[in-house]
Protein backbone atom coordinates (compact mmCIF):
# COMPACT_ATOMS: atom_id res chain seq x y z
CA UNK A 1 0.00 0.00 0.00
CA UNK A 2 1.58 3.31 -1.08
CA UNK A 3 2.45 6.19 1.24
CA UNK A 4 0.49 8.51 -1.05
CA UNK A 5 -2.68 6.47 -0.47
CA UNK A 6 -2.40 6.66 3.32
CA UNK A 7 -1.56 10.37 3.13
CA UNK A 8 -4.58 11.03 0.93
CA UNK A 9 -6.92 9.23 3.34
CA UNK A 10 -5.55 11.10 6.37
CA UNK A 11 -5.80 14.46 4.60
CA UNK A 12 -9.41 14.15 3.43
CA UNK A 13 -11.15 11.21 5.09
CA UNK A 14 -14.61 12.58 4.29
CA UNK A 15 -14.30 11.78 0.59
CA UNK A 16 -14.03 8.05 1.41
CA UNK A 17 -17.14 7.76 3.61
CA UNK A 18 -19.33 6.54 0.74
CA UNK A 19 -16.82 3.82 -0.17
CA UNK A 20 -16.50 2.85 3.50
CA UNK A 21 -20.29 2.51 3.83
CA UNK A 22 -20.52 0.34 0.70
CA UNK A 23 -17.67 -1.91 1.86
CA UNK A 24 -19.16 -2.17 5.36
CA UNK A 25 -22.61 -3.19 4.14
CA UNK A 26 -21.21 -5.62 1.58
CA UNK A 27 -18.88 -7.34 4.02
CA UNK A 28 -21.62 -7.57 6.67
CA UNK A 29 -24.06 -9.24 4.26
CA UNK A 30 -21.48 -11.64 2.82
CA UNK A 31 -20.19 -12.69 6.24
CA UNK A 32 -23.68 -13.03 7.73
CA UNK A 33 -24.84 -15.42 5.01
CA UNK A 34 -21.56 -17.31 4.66
CA UNK A 35 -21.67 -17.98 8.39
CA UNK A 36 -24.47 -20.37 7.43
CA UNK A 37 -21.73 -22.52 5.85
CA UNK A 38 -19.87 -22.54 9.17
CA UNK A 39 -23.11 -23.39 10.97
CA UNK A 40 -23.98 -26.20 8.55
CA UNK A 41 -20.49 -27.69 8.85
CA UNK A 42 -20.81 -28.45 12.55
CA UNK A 43 -21.11 -31.99 13.82
CA UNK A 44 -24.63 -33.29 14.37
CA UNK A 45 -26.45 -31.03 11.85
CA UNK A 46 -29.13 -33.02 10.03
CA UNK A 47 -29.11 -33.18 6.18
CA UNK A 48 -32.27 -31.04 5.73
CA UNK A 49 -30.95 -28.24 7.92
CA UNK A 50 -27.54 -28.46 6.28
CA UNK A 51 -29.06 -28.15 2.80
CA UNK A 52 -31.19 -25.16 3.81
CA UNK A 53 -28.23 -23.32 5.33
CA UNK A 54 -25.91 -24.17 2.44
CA UNK A 55 -28.42 -23.03 -0.17
CA UNK A 56 -29.01 -19.72 1.60
CA UNK A 57 -25.29 -19.07 1.92
CA UNK A 58 -24.53 -20.01 -1.69
CA UNK A 59 -27.32 -18.10 -3.42
CA UNK A 60 -27.37 -14.91 -1.35
CA UNK A 61 -23.61 -14.94 -0.92
CA UNK A 62 -23.24 -14.93 -4.70
CA UNK A 63 -25.69 -12.07 -5.13
CA UNK A 64 -23.99 -10.21 -2.30
CA UNK A 65 -20.59 -10.51 -3.96
CA UNK A 66 -21.94 -9.07 -7.20
CA UNK A 67 -23.69 -6.23 -5.40
CA UNK A 68 -20.57 -5.37 -3.41
CA UNK A 69 -18.68 -4.89 -6.66
CA UNK A 70 -21.45 -2.72 -8.19
CA UNK A 71 -21.83 -0.61 -5.05
CA UNK A 72 -18.12 -0.02 -4.51
CA UNK A 73 -17.53 0.55 -8.24
CA UNK A 74 -20.30 3.14 -8.33
CA UNK A 75 -18.90 5.17 -5.44
CA UNK A 76 -15.28 4.85 -6.54
CA UNK A 77 -16.08 5.93 -10.10
CA UNK A 78 -17.72 9.12 -8.84
CA UNK A 79 -14.83 9.68 -6.42
CA UNK A 80 -12.17 9.32 -9.12
CA UNK A 81 -14.01 11.54 -11.59
CA UNK A 82 -14.30 14.32 -9.02
CA UNK A 83 -10.55 14.14 -8.40
CA UNK A 84 -9.60 14.61 -12.05
CA UNK A 85 -7.82 17.91 -11.39
CA UNK A 86 -5.90 16.47 -8.43
CA UNK A 87 -4.80 13.37 -10.33
CA UNK A 88 -3.83 15.45 -13.38
CA UNK A 89 -1.70 17.63 -11.12
CA UNK A 90 0.07 14.53 -9.83
CA UNK A 91 0.80 13.46 -13.41
CA UNK A 92 2.15 16.91 -14.25
CA UNK A 93 4.34 16.69 -11.14
CA UNK A 94 5.99 13.54 -12.47
CA UNK A 95 3.78 10.71 -11.19
CA UNK A 96 3.34 7.89 -13.68
CA UNK A 97 -0.05 6.30 -14.47
CA UNK A 98 1.10 3.16 -12.64
CA UNK A 99 1.88 5.17 -9.49
CA UNK A 100 -1.51 6.88 -9.62
CA UNK A 101 -3.24 3.52 -10.04
CA UNK A 102 -1.35 2.12 -7.06
CA UNK A 103 -2.37 5.13 -4.98
CA UNK A 104 -6.09 4.89 -5.82
CA UNK A 105 -6.16 1.10 -5.46
CA UNK A 106 -4.28 1.41 -2.16
CA UNK A 107 -6.86 3.91 -0.90
CA UNK A 108 -9.70 1.57 -1.85
CA UNK A 109 -8.07 -1.46 -0.21
CA UNK A 110 -7.34 0.44 3.02
CA UNK A 111 -10.91 1.75 3.26
CA UNK A 112 -12.36 -1.67 2.39
CA UNK A 113 -10.23 -3.32 5.09
CA UNK A 114 -11.58 -0.90 7.69
CA UNK A 115 -15.14 -1.47 6.45
CA UNK A 116 -14.74 -5.25 6.63
CA UNK A 117 -13.32 -5.08 10.14
CA UNK A 118 -16.19 -2.89 11.33
CA UNK A 119 -18.69 -5.30 9.75
CA UNK A 120 -17.67 -8.37 11.77
CA UNK A 121 -19.84 -7.56 14.80
CA UNK A 122 -23.02 -6.70 12.82
CA UNK A 123 -22.42 -9.77 10.62
CA UNK A 124 -22.41 -12.05 13.64
CA UNK A 125 -25.66 -10.52 14.88
CA UNK A 126 -27.19 -10.76 11.40
CA UNK A 127 -26.14 -14.39 10.97
CA UNK A 128 -27.69 -15.33 14.31
CA UNK A 129 -30.91 -13.54 13.31
CA UNK A 130 -30.94 -15.48 10.03
CA UNK A 131 -30.60 -18.80 11.84
CA UNK A 132 -33.44 -17.83 14.19
CA UNK A 133 -35.62 -16.99 11.17
CA UNK A 134 -34.93 -20.35 9.54
CA UNK A 135 -35.67 -22.15 12.82
CA UNK A 136 -38.89 -20.23 13.40
CA UNK A 137 -40.14 -21.23 9.92
CA UNK A 138 -39.27 -24.89 10.51
CA UNK A 139 -36.58 -25.01 7.84
CA UNK A 140 -33.75 -25.66 10.30
CA UNK A 141 -33.86 -27.82 13.43
CA UNK A 142 -33.89 -26.06 16.82
CA UNK A 143 -30.94 -28.16 17.92
CA UNK A 144 -28.58 -26.40 15.46
CA UNK A 145 -26.28 -23.87 17.15
CA UNK A 146 -24.96 -20.76 15.43
CA UNK A 147 -21.31 -20.65 14.37
CA UNK A 148 -19.30 -17.75 12.94
CA UNK A 149 -16.09 -19.27 11.65
CA UNK A 150 -13.30 -19.05 9.08
CA UNK A 151 -15.55 -19.37 6.01
CA UNK A 152 -17.57 -16.30 6.93
CA UNK A 153 -14.56 -14.23 7.94
CA UNK A 154 -12.29 -15.14 5.02
CA UNK A 155 -15.01 -14.78 2.38
CA UNK A 156 -16.22 -11.42 3.68
CA UNK A 157 -12.77 -9.88 3.91
CA UNK A 158 -11.38 -11.34 0.67
CA UNK A 159 -14.42 -10.56 -1.49
CA UNK A 160 -14.68 -7.01 -0.18
CA UNK A 161 -10.96 -6.35 -0.74
CA UNK A 162 -10.95 -7.88 -4.23
CA UNK A 163 -14.11 -6.00 -5.26
CA UNK A 164 -12.71 -2.71 -3.98
CA UNK A 165 -9.31 -3.19 -5.61
CA UNK A 166 -10.87 -4.26 -8.93
CA UNK A 167 -13.38 -1.42 -8.97
CA UNK A 168 -10.70 1.15 -8.12
CA UNK A 169 -8.37 -0.19 -10.81
CA UNK A 170 -11.09 0.02 -13.48
CA UNK A 171 -12.15 3.51 -12.40
CA UNK A 172 -8.67 5.01 -12.48
CA UNK A 173 -7.57 3.07 -15.57
CA UNK A 174 -10.10 4.85 -17.73
CA UNK A 175 -8.99 8.23 -16.36
CA UNK A 176 -5.27 7.59 -16.93
CA UNK A 177 -6.04 6.49 -20.49
CA UNK A 178 -7.51 9.90 -21.23
CA UNK A 179 -11.17 9.02 -20.67
CA UNK A 180 -11.34 6.59 -23.58
CA UNK A 181 -13.79 3.78 -23.07
CA UNK A 182 -13.82 0.37 -24.72
CA UNK A 183 -17.40 0.52 -25.91
CA UNK A 184 -16.99 -2.52 -28.14
CA UNK A 185 -16.45 -4.90 -25.23
CA UNK A 186 -19.31 -3.33 -23.28
CA UNK A 187 -21.68 -3.68 -26.24
CA UNK A 188 -20.67 -7.30 -26.71
CA UNK A 189 -21.34 -8.09 -23.05
CA UNK A 190 -24.63 -6.23 -23.17
CA UNK A 191 -25.72 -8.11 -26.28
CA UNK A 192 -24.73 -11.44 -24.75
CA UNK A 193 -26.69 -10.63 -21.56
CA UNK A 194 -29.78 -9.60 -23.55
CA UNK A 195 -29.74 -12.68 -25.78
CA UNK A 196 -29.08 -15.05 -22.87
CA UNK A 197 -31.74 -13.36 -20.76
CA UNK A 198 -34.34 -13.59 -23.50
CA UNK A 199 -33.46 -17.26 -24.04
CA UNK A 200 -33.75 -17.99 -20.31
CA UNK A 201 -37.14 -16.28 -20.12
CA UNK A 202 -38.32 -18.23 -23.18
CA UNK A 203 -37.15 -21.49 -21.61
CA UNK A 204 -39.90 -21.04 -19.00
CA UNK A 205 -42.35 -22.65 -21.43
CA UNK A 206 -40.35 -25.90 -21.27
CA UNK A 207 -41.39 -26.43 -17.62
CA UNK A 208 -44.69 -27.68 -16.22
CA UNK A 209 -46.88 -25.58 -13.92
CA UNK A 210 -45.95 -27.64 -10.84
CA UNK A 211 -42.21 -27.90 -11.50
CA UNK A 212 -40.21 -26.71 -8.47
CA UNK A 213 -37.65 -25.04 -10.75
CA UNK A 214 -40.26 -23.11 -12.73
CA UNK A 215 -39.33 -19.74 -11.19
CA UNK A 216 -35.59 -20.08 -11.84
CA UNK A 217 -35.62 -19.55 -15.61
CA UNK A 218 -37.78 -16.38 -15.75
CA UNK A 219 -36.00 -14.93 -12.71
CA UNK A 220 -32.58 -15.35 -14.31
CA UNK A 221 -33.98 -14.06 -17.58
CA UNK A 222 -35.18 -10.85 -15.94
CA UNK A 223 -31.85 -10.40 -14.14
CA UNK A 224 -29.76 -10.89 -17.30
CA UNK A 225 -31.98 -8.59 -19.33
CA UNK A 226 -31.67 -5.88 -16.68
CA UNK A 227 -27.87 -6.32 -16.71
CA UNK A 228 -27.88 -5.94 -20.50
CA UNK A 229 -29.92 -2.74 -20.30
CA UNK A 230 -27.71 -1.47 -17.47
CA UNK A 231 -24.56 -1.92 -19.57
CA UNK A 232 -26.19 0.10 -22.33
CA UNK A 233 -27.53 2.77 -19.95
CA UNK A 234 -25.59 5.79 -21.37
CA UNK A 235 -26.75 4.98 -24.91
CA UNK A 236 -30.31 4.31 -23.73
CA UNK A 237 -30.40 7.63 -21.87
CA UNK A 238 -29.21 9.53 -24.93
CA UNK A 239 -31.88 7.81 -27.02
CA UNK A 240 -34.57 8.86 -24.55
CA UNK A 241 -33.28 12.45 -24.42
CA UNK A 242 -33.39 12.75 -28.20
CA UNK A 243 -37.12 11.94 -28.14
CA UNK A 244 -38.28 13.99 -25.14
CA UNK A 245 -40.83 16.67 -26.05
CA UNK A 246 -39.83 18.93 -23.13
CA UNK A 247 -40.33 22.68 -23.29
CA UNK A 248 -39.49 25.60 -21.03
CA UNK A 249 -36.18 26.66 -19.51
CA UNK A 250 -36.09 23.95 -16.83
CA UNK A 251 -36.82 21.15 -19.28
CA UNK A 252 -34.33 22.40 -21.84
CA UNK A 253 -31.56 22.78 -19.26
CA UNK A 254 -32.32 19.37 -17.75
CA UNK A 255 -32.05 17.64 -21.14
CA UNK A 256 -28.87 19.56 -21.99
CA UNK A 257 -27.23 18.69 -18.65
CA UNK A 258 -28.20 15.02 -18.87
CA UNK A 259 -26.97 14.70 -22.45
CA UNK A 260 -23.61 16.21 -21.49
CA UNK A 261 -23.25 14.00 -18.39
CA UNK A 262 -24.85 10.80 -19.74
CA UNK A 263 -21.78 8.62 -19.20
CA UNK A 264 -21.31 9.99 -15.66
CA UNK A 265 -24.90 9.11 -14.74
CA UNK A 266 -24.60 5.47 -15.76
CA UNK A 267 -24.27 4.35 -12.15
CA UNK A 268 -27.62 5.90 -11.24
CA UNK A 269 -29.39 4.26 -14.18
CA UNK A 270 -27.74 0.92 -13.43
CA UNK A 271 -29.16 1.06 -9.91
CA UNK A 272 -32.64 2.02 -11.06
CA UNK A 273 -32.83 -0.61 -13.80
CA UNK A 274 -31.54 -3.47 -11.65
CA UNK A 275 -33.73 -2.55 -8.69
CA UNK A 276 -36.92 -2.19 -10.71
CA UNK A 277 -36.37 -5.38 -12.70
CA UNK A 278 -35.19 -7.73 -9.98
CA UNK A 279 -37.51 -6.57 -7.20
CA UNK A 280 -40.64 -6.34 -9.35
CA UNK A 281 -40.08 -9.67 -11.09
CA UNK A 282 -39.13 -11.60 -7.96
CA UNK A 283 -41.84 -10.26 -5.69
CA UNK A 284 -44.54 -10.64 -8.34
CA UNK A 285 -43.60 -14.23 -9.21
CA UNK A 286 -43.32 -15.18 -5.53
CA UNK A 287 -46.75 -13.69 -4.88
CA UNK A 288 -48.25 -15.59 -7.81
CA UNK A 289 -46.63 -18.82 -6.61
CA UNK A 290 -47.84 -18.38 -3.01
CA UNK A 291 -51.40 -17.63 -4.12
CA UNK A 292 -51.40 -20.63 -6.47
CA UNK A 293 -50.23 -22.98 -3.70
CA UNK A 294 -52.80 -21.56 -1.30
CA UNK A 295 -55.60 -21.97 -3.84
CA UNK A 296 -54.65 -25.59 -4.41
CA UNK A 297 -54.89 -26.37 -0.70
CA UNK A 298 -51.41 -27.86 -0.60
CA UNK A 299 -48.74 -27.24 2.05
CA UNK A 300 -45.43 -25.72 1.00
CA UNK A 301 -42.47 -28.08 1.04
CA UNK A 302 -39.18 -27.22 2.73
CA UNK A 303 -37.65 -26.47 -0.68
CA UNK A 304 -40.54 -24.12 -1.50
CA UNK A 305 -40.10 -22.33 1.83
CA UNK A 306 -36.35 -22.04 1.19
CA UNK A 307 -37.01 -20.51 -2.20
CA UNK A 308 -39.50 -18.02 -0.81
CA UNK A 309 -37.13 -17.00 1.97
CA UNK A 310 -34.27 -16.57 -0.48
CA UNK A 311 -36.37 -14.55 -2.90
CA UNK A 312 -37.52 -12.13 -0.23
CA UNK A 313 -34.03 -11.90 1.25
CA UNK A 314 -32.40 -11.22 -2.11
CA UNK A 315 -34.90 -8.46 -2.88
CA UNK A 316 -34.26 -6.94 0.54
CA UNK A 317 -30.49 -6.97 -0.02
CA UNK A 318 -30.86 -5.46 -3.47
CA UNK A 319 -33.15 -2.73 -2.11
CA UNK A 320 -30.60 -1.79 0.57
CA UNK A 321 -27.68 -1.76 -1.86
CA UNK A 322 -29.54 0.17 -4.53
CA UNK A 323 -30.54 2.80 -2.01
CA UNK A 324 -26.92 3.09 -0.88
CA UNK A 325 -25.66 3.30 -4.47
CA UNK A 326 -28.26 5.88 -5.45
CA UNK A 327 -27.73 8.04 -2.39
CA UNK A 328 -23.93 7.90 -2.71
CA UNK A 329 -23.90 8.59 -6.46
CA UNK A 330 -26.51 11.34 -6.37
CA UNK A 331 -25.06 13.02 -3.31
CA UNK A 332 -21.55 13.06 -4.73
CA UNK A 333 -22.65 14.10 -8.22
CA UNK A 334 -24.92 16.91 -6.95
CA UNK A 335 -22.39 18.22 -4.42
CA UNK A 336 -19.79 18.35 -7.21
CA UNK A 337 -22.04 20.77 -9.14
CA UNK A 338 -21.67 23.55 -6.57
CA UNK A 339 -19.79 25.78 -9.00
CA UNK A 340 -22.31 25.11 -11.79
CA UNK A 341 -25.20 26.09 -9.52
CA UNK A 342 -23.32 29.22 -8.44
CA UNK A 343 -22.73 30.27 -12.05
CA UNK A 344 -26.40 29.77 -12.87
CA UNK A 345 -27.42 31.97 -9.94
CA UNK A 346 -24.92 34.67 -10.91
CA UNK A 347 -26.43 34.58 -14.40
CA UNK A 348 -29.87 35.37 -12.93
CA UNK A 349 -31.40 32.00 -12.01
CA UNK A 350 -33.22 31.80 -8.70
CA UNK A 351 -32.68 28.90 -6.26
CA UNK A 352 -36.18 27.70 -7.16
CA UNK A 353 -35.29 27.55 -10.84
CA UNK A 354 -32.09 25.61 -10.10
CA UNK A 355 -34.10 23.12 -8.02
CA UNK A 356 -36.62 22.82 -10.86
CA UNK A 357 -33.82 21.77 -13.24
CA UNK A 358 -32.49 19.24 -10.74
CA UNK A 359 -36.02 17.91 -10.23
CA UNK A 360 -36.59 17.56 -13.97
CA UNK A 361 -33.29 15.68 -14.31
CA UNK A 362 -34.35 13.34 -11.50
CA UNK A 363 -37.71 12.66 -13.12
CA UNK A 364 -36.11 11.86 -16.49
CA UNK A 365 -33.57 9.51 -14.88
CA UNK A 366 -36.27 7.79 -12.81
CA UNK A 367 -38.63 7.32 -15.75
CA UNK A 368 -35.82 5.98 -17.96
CA UNK A 369 -34.55 3.53 -15.35
CA UNK A 370 -38.03 2.37 -14.37
CA UNK A 371 -39.08 1.89 -18.00
CA UNK A 372 -36.22 -0.43 -18.97
CA UNK A 373 -36.37 -2.17 -15.60
CA UNK A 374 -40.07 -2.82 -16.14
CA UNK A 375 -39.43 -4.25 -19.60
CA UNK A 376 -36.91 -6.68 -18.12
CA UNK A 377 -39.29 -7.59 -15.28
CA UNK A 378 -42.20 -8.27 -17.62
CA UNK A 379 -39.99 -10.54 -19.74
CA UNK A 380 -39.80 -12.83 -16.71
CA UNK A 381 -43.22 -12.29 -15.14
CA UNK A 382 -45.34 -12.91 -18.23
CA UNK A 383 -43.91 -16.36 -19.19
CA UNK A 384 -44.03 -17.48 -15.55
CA UNK A 385 -47.65 -16.40 -15.15
CA UNK A 386 -48.73 -18.01 -18.42
CA UNK A 387 -47.24 -21.37 -17.41
CA UNK A 388 -48.27 -21.25 -13.75
CA UNK A 389 -51.81 -19.85 -13.97
CA UNK A 390 -52.75 -19.61 -17.68
CA UNK A 391 -53.15 -15.83 -17.25
CA UNK A 392 -50.88 -13.30 -19.01
CA UNK A 393 -50.37 -10.50 -16.51
CA UNK A 394 -51.04 -11.32 -12.85
CA UNK A 395 -53.24 -9.14 -10.65
CA UNK A 396 -50.35 -8.82 -8.18
CA UNK A 397 -48.09 -7.06 -10.69
CA UNK A 398 -49.56 -3.55 -10.49
CA UNK A 399 -49.36 -3.27 -6.71
CA UNK A 400 -45.79 -4.56 -6.56
CA UNK A 401 -44.72 -2.36 -9.46
CA UNK A 402 -46.23 0.80 -7.95
CA UNK A 403 -44.51 0.13 -4.62
CA UNK A 404 -41.11 -0.38 -6.27
CA UNK A 405 -41.49 2.68 -8.49
CA UNK A 406 -42.52 4.82 -5.52
CA UNK A 407 -39.44 3.71 -3.57
CA UNK A 408 -37.10 4.32 -6.52
CA UNK A 409 -38.60 7.77 -7.19
CA UNK A 410 -38.50 8.76 -3.52
CA UNK A 411 -34.81 7.86 -3.18
CA UNK A 412 -33.79 9.47 -6.49
CA UNK A 413 -35.74 12.71 -6.20
CA UNK A 414 -35.36 13.01 -2.45
CA UNK A 415 -31.58 12.67 -2.54
CA UNK A 416 -31.11 14.87 -5.60
CA UNK A 417 -33.34 17.72 -4.43
CA UNK A 418 -32.24 17.48 -0.80
CA UNK A 419 -28.56 17.66 -1.73
CA UNK A 420 -29.15 20.49 -4.21
CA UNK A 421 -31.03 22.48 -1.57
CA UNK A 422 -28.09 22.02 0.81
CA UNK A 423 -25.57 23.10 -1.86
CA UNK A 424 -27.63 26.21 -2.64
CA UNK A 425 -27.20 27.47 0.93
CA UNK A 426 -23.67 28.51 -0.04
CA UNK A 427 -23.61 32.05 -1.52
CA UNK A 428 -23.25 32.03 -5.30
CA UNK A 429 -19.95 33.96 -5.33
CA UNK A 430 -18.49 31.69 -2.64
CA UNK A 431 -19.56 28.55 -4.53
CA UNK A 432 -17.88 29.73 -7.75
CA UNK A 433 -14.63 30.89 -6.15
CA UNK A 434 -14.22 27.91 -3.79
CA UNK A 435 -14.67 25.39 -6.63
CA UNK A 436 -12.45 27.26 -9.04
Describe this structure in words.
It contains 16 helices and no strands. It has 436 residues and is mainly alpha-helical. Helix 10 crosses helix 14 and helix 12 (302-335) packs parallel to helix 15. The protein has helices at 3-11, 17-40, 47-82, 84-92, 97-136, 150-176, 183-202, 216-231, 233-242, 248-260, 266-296, 302-335, 338-346, 351-389, 396-423, 428-435. This is ABC transporter permease.
What are the SSEs and their pairings?
Layout: H1 3-11, H2 17-40, H3 47-82, H4 84-92, H5 97-136, H6 150-176, H7 183-202, H8 216-231, H9 233-242, H10 248-260, H11 266-296, H12 302-335, H13 338-346, H14 351-389, H15 396-423, H16 428-435
Percent helix, as a range, is over 70%
Instruction: Point out poorly predicted stretches.
Output: none
C-alpha-based Rg, rounded:
23 Å
Count, helices: 16
- DSSP strand count: 0
Arithmetic mean of pLDDT: 82
End-to-end distance: 31 Å
Structural class: mainly alpha
Measured by DSSP, the beta-strand proportion falls in: under 5%
In N-to-C order, the SSE pattern is HHHHHHHHHHHHHHHH
Main sheet properties: none
Shape verdict: globular
In short:
With 436 residues, the chain is mainly alpha-helical.
List keywords for this structure.
ABC transporter permease, globular, 81% helix, mainly alpha, 436 residues
